[in-house]
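Marked as duplicate of an earlier ticket. Keeping the data here for the record.
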Amino acid sequence: MTTKHEQIIQHIISLSVGSKISVRQIAKDLNVSDGTAYRAIKEAENQGIVSTIERVGTIRIERKKKENFDRLTFAEVVNIIDGQVLGGHDGLYKTLSKFVIGAMQLEAMMRYTQADSLLIVGNRIKAHELALNAGAAVLITGGFDTEDYIKKLADDKEMPIISTSYDTFTVAAMINRAIYDQLIKKEIIFVGDIATPFEESHYLRSKDTIEAWYKLNSLSSHTRFPVVDDKLQVIGMVSSKDIVGKDRSIVIDRVMSKKPQVVLSKTSLASVAHTMVWEGIELVPVVDQSYQLQGVVSRQDVLKAMQQIQRQPQVGETIDDIVSRNLETSEDDENIFESMVIPQMTNQLGTLSNGVFITLITEASSRLLKKVKKADVTIENITVYYSKPVQIDSKLTIKPQLLDVGRLYAKIDVEVYNERNLVGKGLIMAQLINR
């Protein structure tokens, strides 16, 4: 039986794209409290099926596909530039294909203005009209208004016309930055991206017997299963060590481990990898906010995803990406690494940033462990116990040395040199993720 929360989400999904949504109306239509309606609408916003816009309200939007994260809806543009919607509210859910800066003659401007694009322009009424007739949205900079007949045209064409107090350059920079941020977010893998969905997951109910565990074990070859109650909420885990030597007629809730480790679908891959290594577990249930089972993620799922990330080209580049790309293996010794201190790696004083120093020794240690142990790594603890300022354009030599290594852990001492001068030392404790 579905919960009220799920019923509201399904109701919102069933609404046509562009529909307005309010807490009061949802509460009235589905006979739920305002609080329940509000929480469900917020969850729908997290799922990307509604968007809340100041002075407009909450509207149903089309859920984005992952490959379209580099696109923005006009509703998102309104939020980014603190805009005011003058007309064409019904088109806010549509996706922006590109934007055009209207700092040119009308005829030239219209050659670049296509359907589903966004024309960024000042107080040029004719340009507003021509863009809307071409199927494009309009963003008016400088806080200007437009004529009433233009607003009506926007309503008829279902393409938004938006006003913002920012200038054209600032608006273009803000939209560019938003798209760039989306590209970086696109590369972050969450548990929900790799988990086995609920429909394909194996689980046990609290009143099942141990015999049911053996049936699932033979069916799936797994040895660890989540246990759910009548509401499909995760209440325990059962593994082979819990049932070994016990009578097969014993009920599961008498042998299961209670208060199991669970993760949300929005938990990052790095976080769940650390959890699985730290807790020494092979499989983790994926739940929603109410602890209802959404799927499972295994150690194999995590390993495959981590290996896939390493093969993927970077689109949105972070500081860690820059540092990693700038770190090269020494020609003299494949266990020693070198890096130039480029401007992006420095602080406001022009010397090597502390955060970049940690990233350098971490990356060098991870590469060494992958070479020696053929395993993926999650860093447990970093101690920097010696550090000197390093100026820009310096060449660093990073020398990680294994002090102790086991099946699941490693201790690495790292020395960093500028030419032949010692400029930093660190100690790293790492957990290994083996197949």
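See parent ticket for discussion. Residues 65-70, 311-316 have pLDDT under 50 and may be disordered.
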